[in-house]
C-alpha cells in the first residue's frame, strides 16, 4: 500500500484559490458577536433603564393631562346641570305661584258672585 503522502502529492497542481477569495471565509457567514466588557454591559443597562424611566414618565404625564381634561369637562357638565336644574326649579316655582294666584283670583271672583 502506498503511503498517504503520495496521494496528496499526486493531486493536480492546477487547483488554486482565486485571488479575490483569498481573504474570504465562507464558514463564517454569521460571525458571533464579540464579547462586551462588563463596563459596556453596565452602561447599556443603565441607558436602557433611563430610557424606560423617561418613557414611563412621558406616559404618566400624558395620562395625567388626559385626566385633568376629563375633570374639567366633568366640572363644566356639573355646572351646566346645576344651572339647568336651578332654571327648571325657578320655572316650576313661577308656574306654581301663577296657578295659586289664578286659583285665588278665581276664588275671589267666585265669592264676590261674578
UniProtKB/TrEMBL annotation:
<feature type="compositionally biased region" description="Basic and acidic residues">
    <location>
        <begin position="42"/>
        <end position="60"/>
    </location>
</feature>
<feature type="region of interest" description="Disordered">
    <location>
        <begin position="1"/>
        <end position="61"/>
    </location>
</feature>
<feature type="compositionally biased region" description="Polar residues">
    <location>
        <begin position="7"/>
        <end position="19"/>
    </location>
</feature>
<feature type="compositionally biased region" description="Basic and acidic residues">
    <location>
        <begin position="20"/>
        <end position="31"/>
    </location>
</feature>
<protein>
    <submittedName>
        <fullName>Uncharacterized protein</fullName>
    </submittedName>
</protein>
